[in-house]
UniProtKB/TrEMBL annotation:
InterPro entries: BCAA_transport, Leu-bd, Peripla_BP_I. Residues 1-23 form the signal peptide. This is Substrate-binding domain-containing protein. Residues 43-382 form the Leucine-binding protein domain. Keywords: Signal. Pfam families: Peripla_BP_6.
């Protein structure tokens, strides 16, 4: 009798242990287990860092609008991939690196995002890069362009859909640089401007041009008189301008009559608001990242039509397609991983991944995760009914032509 009782107690204990182990296994599976993929029914979260106030406010808003459109396009309006909803949270960096770090930390710790996207400023982005590595989360860089992001400051969690300064430089040099041409440069005095000039100088000198003067202005400056006078004194054939932000130098360049002094102007065509300040530069040849009439593909057609519907007839601007592309890249990667957000699987999936964008096919180069992409050689022309100079296509520069050097070795 005692042996029977002991046997029954033993069997009950075995049953309890098995039930407990089963419950633990079930709990571990629901929490994502060791694969880091998250609950299969949990939403995938994306944190978007953008300048929604300050000098780059327009860029930030374009990126956010584009991201939302891209999410709709890539998921056929469901905002869902592999049965998991995609949510995004937008934070304003105020174009201040210290604020960008605070907001990124909040997104990573409190909101527990699976991806970061951003930001409008290269300075903000460079400050946030180490957090992506520390928290082991993919960061899609858009639209910041400093070469160092995928160069000296690169880490394996960084993928960039934005073009970089070297890609801009290759396109800009192709427009004006040749043997015997003397070129001066004007740029803001921070990473975006200095990286841009460094890359342009390398590309232009390879084509035989001479850089006779480099001028750097305070990025918050509104008076460029002394900067422009130094450029005039250098007597270049061309002034190549690298600029971003609302405080552009175009009015003073026109007021100081550089073109009448025999100095031709060249630059990357900016967003529509800045184009309205470039009326004296009609006929200028340069390049652009995007203008809504230039790409010829179904993704851009959808973007232009849908943007007009949602934003009172307005066309997508310079950085809208970049925001869209960052969303498309995330969704395409998640389709390939079947919704798994394990970071190592995502990195392996995204390295070398090609995907369609409003600018045509892009590919994340495996070596540095820079998206290879088309840029556009353009001429500014007057167009009836448009109150700013319109970028007109000279020719599309292919991803192979604009491929920048690998700088993260």
């Amino acid at each position: 009798m005692k042996r029977t009782t002991r046997n029954m107690l033993f069997l009950l204990m075995v049953a309890f242990v098995m039930a407990f182990a089963s419950a633990c296994t079930s709990s571990d599976t629901n929490s994502g287990g060791s694969d880091g993929g998250g609950k299969s029914d949990e939403p995938i979260k994306v944190g978007v860092l953008a300048s929604l106030t300050g000098g780059l406010e327009a860029y930030g808003k374009q990126t956010v609008n584009g991201f939302e459109l891209g999410l709709d396009y890539a998921t056929d309006g469901t905002q869902e991939v592999a049965g998991r909803k995609i949510e995004f949270i937008v934070e304003d960096t105020e174009t201040k690196p210290e604020v960008a770090v605070q907001k990124a930390t909040k997104l990573l710790e409190e909101d527990e995002v699976d991806f970061l996207v951003g930001s409008s400023s290269s300075g903000d982005t460079l400050a946030v890069l180490p957090l992506a590595e520390e928290y082991e989360k993919i960061m899609i860089v858009e639209p910041a362009v400093a070469d160092s992001i995928t160069g000296s400051e690169f880490n394996p969690y960084i993928f960039r859909t934005a073009r970089n300064s070297s890609q801009d430089a290759i396109a800009g040099a192709a427009a004006i640089a040749k043997k015997g041409v003397k070129i001066a440069t004007l740029a803001p005095d921070y990473s975006f401007g200095r990286d841009g000039v460094k890359a342009f100088k390398e590309a232009a000198t390879k084509l035989g041009a001479e850089i006779v003067h480099e001028e750097y202005a305070d990025q918050k400056a509104t008076d460029f008189t002394s900067n422009i006078q130094k450029i005039i004194d250098a007597k270049p054939d061309y002034l190549f301008v690298v600029w971003a932000g609302a405080n552009s130098p175009w009015n003073q360049i026109a007021d100081m009559k550089l073109q009448e002094k025999g100095i031709k102007i060249s630059t990357g065509a900016p967003d529509i608001a800045a184009l309205s300040l470039m009326k004296p530069l009609v006929g200028m040849e340069g390049f652009t990242v995007y203008y809504h009439t230039l790409p010829d593909n179904k993704v851009n057609d959808w973007l232009v039509e849908e943007h007009k519907k949602r934003f009172k007839g307005e066309v997508p601007d310079l950085f809208t397609p970049g925001g869209m592309t960052s969303a498309i890249a995330i969704v395409e990667a998640l389709k390939k991983t079947e919704g798994n957000t394990d970071v190592q699987q995502l990195i392996e999936t995204m390295e070398g991944m090609s995907f369609e964008s409003p600018k045509g096919k892009m590919t994340f180069r495996p070596e540095d995760h820079q998206a290879l992409q088309a840029l556009y050689a353009i001429r500014l022309e007057k167009k009836e009914g448009v109150d700013y100079p319109v970028p007109v296509l000279i020719r599309e520069l292919t991803p192979e032509e604009t491929a920048p050097p690998i700088l993260n070795k």
